[in-house]
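--- STAGE predict ---
source: upstream dedup step, 1 unique chain passed
mode: sequence only
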Amino acid sequence: MPGIYIHIPFCRQACYYCDFHFSTSLKNKKDFLDALKKEIFLQKDYFETKNISTVYFGGGTPSLLSKEEILGIVDELSKYFLIAPDAEITLEANPDDLSKEKLKELSQTPINRLSIGIQSFSDVDLKFLHRIHTSKEAIASVKNAQEVGFNNITIDLIYGIQSLTNKQWKKNIEQALALNVPHLSCYSLTVEPRTALHSFIRKGKIKNIDSKKSAEQFEILMDKMQENKFIHYEISNFCKEKFYSKHNSNYWKGVHYLGLGPSAHSYNGDSRQWNVSGNAAYIKSITNRKVPFEKEVVSEHQKYNEYILTSLRTIWGTDCYFIKKNFSQKLLSHLEKEVKIFLDKKMLSQADEKIFLTQKGKLFADKIASDLFFIPDTINN
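--- STAGE serialize ---
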């Protein structure tokens, strides 16, 4: 069943590395919420089915929403979609928002999974990233969430930070394990254009990211997770049995999804579309009963490339039978030719017509995927 993503475009302050759409002003939050409910109605026929298996509140900082605002959004969704009784409903949250009182309120909503943006348990790193919370607040947020009954919790950690040593990275992982959370999402710090981090590096105020250190920290992460019996089910994601992120797993498996809110993306199998990235423009257009999006029809080779990119990153691997069944022989032949190169290098393995990244290959996942892509202009037909 498909899922719904809801973008909440507000944050208390801008993190130096973030390039997601948000505003640090809450003055038009009410107008945004009114528009969001109208968009739900306008997009009620996006899927052929009304059945929904996941709802994901992302951002921005969705934990800025009150209990009543969350209930209002879910109630509006329920008017036009059939949310499964066992649906995974995730809320992204910042540790500084998760007081005991706030968590008790969240426990009285349909939210059943928390994604807590901790990023680091080092105050030095948090200051470097321009995060609001402290390491003490990060630990307390997880413990308090567990005390009020949330057991499906994931935390985000970032490695490759200029201020992060391998020693501190190991401590970060050990602290996460000590908190007994069943899921970790761990990302290498990247420098995105038009971010403060990009500007600081360009002006020479701080050093660029050390790719060698990032690779070392990724290897430390994989080893630690394996030692503690976490399943490395996607390049950046690790979980205990039965605690996969259903919503994100559906992205990687090509399941359809609807994105609501400014900058949110949608995909129905044949086309993808993305809403305007601007709160005022979004609100104005929705008020006039028009969803402000751009749309792209996805070609066969684009579908193939996206399948390679997403499937190869996962524990389920790239299925040659699926490609044989859904794509042309030309694409299958191209894949078989390119895969052999990485099989010989021990970066890929193959079993039962499925292709998987090896431990070595995971260090070069994006490069391998791009080499398996089909580019019509450069492939001999």
